[in-house]
Every structure is written in C-alpha cells, then in structure tokens.
Amino acid sequence: MAAATVVAGLAIAACAPVPLPPVPGPNKPISTTTSIPNERCPLGAPASPYFSFLAVEDGCPVRWNPCRPIPWWFNPTGAVRPLSEIHAAFEQVANASGLTFEYRGATTRRSREWFESWEGYGLVVDFAEIPGSVVGLGGIAWSMDGVQRGMVQLDPTMMTSPNPVEARRQWLDLTLHEIGHAVGLHHVDHRSERMYPMLTDPFHGTFGGGDLQGLRHVGREQGCAGPAAQTSDAPVLRRVVAE
Ligand SMILES: [Zn+2]
User: Fold this and answer.
1) Where are the domains of the chain?
2) pTM for this prediction
3) Fold for the domain defined by 5-16+23-225
4) 227: number of CA atoms within 13 Å, CB side?
5) pLDDT recorded at residue 229
6) Cα(138) to centroid(ligand 1), Å
7) pLDDT recorded at residue 191
8) Cα 35 from Cα 58, distance rounded (Å)
C-alpha cells in the first residue's frame, strides 16, 4: 500500500485514483475474470468493481484452505504497534471470511524471507522499512493445494496522525489491507474499500462492504481447498506480492 500525502503531520487522501502499483517479481497476478461457479468454489470468482483477487485459477480464487487452521507468527523486532492490534485485524479477517488463524507466538523470521522460502505453512507479520512511498506489503505463495505461505510487512516509519485514536485506525487500515493481500485479495478502485491501494483519511479501522464480499469469496463458504489433511509441504508453484 502506498502512503497518503502528508501535510503538516496530517495524512490526507490523494484526490485522484491511483494506478495499481507494479507487482514485483516474475509472477504477475492473473486477471480476475467472470467465472461460472463450480464444485471447487461454489461462489466462483466473479468480476466486481468492489473486490478482486490476486490470482484466479480454473475459475476459482487462489486461497488458503479454510478447513485447515492458518498458523501465524509475529516478529516483534522494530514493531511500533502492539501485537493486540495485529490480533484485532486478524479477528476481522476471520469473522468476514470464516478462515481460522492460530497465533503461534513470536518469531525471528522476516516475513519476506519466510514467504520466499520453500518450506513451511502459515503467515509471518513483521515491521520492516520499505523503500519509497510504499508503507506495506502483503503476499501469497501457493501450490496446487492452495496457499501455503503468506507475508505481511508493515513499514514502521509510516507517518501517522498525531491523534492516537486516528493513528490506531490508520495502522489498522494498513494491516487490514496487507492481510487482505495475504488471503488473496487484490486492489479495487473505490476509496470506500480497504483494498483501495492508497491509505486515505478518514481512516476506518474496519473493512468496507466490497472487502467483506471479497473475503467471503476466499473463505469458508467456498468450501475446503486442497487436501484438508495435508501435512507435508507441497512445492510452491507461484508467488505474488502486492503493495
Ligand atoms: Zn495493496
């Protein structure tokens, strides 16, 4: 996610829609297309101006297996916000999607390294400075068995509102956005949604209506994805990171 323009310490919204930022790496997101619901995903992957997916394969959004808890770890190194806020963001994603997240404790892993590794299942959240105006990254790495690893990276140097209540909402908006990527959502062009690619004032601290619809489409209502009893780590075939 890109930072909003900051004037006199106050973040203000950009006036014009921001073009979608380029996705690093060789794997570009697969464009979302209208699809006919099928047995792999009864809700399908409909095209909507209010939600979209990082990747669609065989007419279904690429997603985590909702029938398997998703472990996640937090790297406290350099963190400028309390773990409770990260929990609060995951709780919103869980409530909207039906996905189950299991906090496994602190880690020394960096989210990007975890994401780019070839083994392991789950999601790592950390704070690490990102060059330029980008203040957050979220991504998924997936195989034929669904998403295997996710990353959420938040930039601790982001300029925030001097008002602590506003600042909390601002961080929550950023965290929701990046976790949104880490469960398979992509950007939309509507500022009312948290998946808008710009952090905008006023801050909400909650998802928008389109975000909630998108989360349904990568969640439990789509049924299990991949073998629910899978315990080994299948080779990762693709990765996407978005700002
Ligand atoms: Zn983004």
Assistant:
1) 5-16+23-225
2) 0.84
3) Collagenase (Catalytic Domain) (3.40.390)
4) 8
5) 42
6) 7
7) 95
8) 9
Instruction: Provide mean pLDDT across the span 120-128.
Output: 97
pLDDT, position 187: 97
Q: 3-class secondary structure for 74-97?
A: EECCCCCCCHHHHHHHHHHHHHHH
Compute and round to an integer the Cα radius of gyration of the chain. 17
Do the beta carbons of residue 18 and residue 197 sit within 8 Å?
Answer: yes
Helix (H) or strand (E) holding 138: strand 136-143
Distance 199 CA to ligand 1 centre (A): 9
pLDDT attached to residue 28 = 40
Q: How many CB atoms lie within 10 A of CB 232?
A: 8
Distance 162 CA to ligand 1 centre (A): 24
* pLDDT over 50 at 9, yes or no: no
Distance CA 161, CA 167 (A): 5
pLDDT tens column, 61-96: 999 999 999 999 999 999 999 999 999 999 999 999
β-strands 101-106, 136-143: how paired?
A: unpaired
Tell me, what DSSP letter sits at residue 226?
Answer: S
CA 150–ligand 1 middle distance (angstroms): 14
Query: pLDDT: is 6 or 221 the higher one?
Result: 221
CA of 120 to the centre of ligand 1 (A): 24
Rounded to the nearest angstrom, the distance between the alpha carbon of 188 and the centre of ligand 1 is 9
Of 16, 85, 64, the residue nearest 180 (C-alpha) = 64
Q: Is a pLDDT exceeding 60 seen at residue 181?
A: yes
What is the Å distance from ligand 1's center to 87 Cα?
20
Cis amide bond preceding 66, omega within 30: no
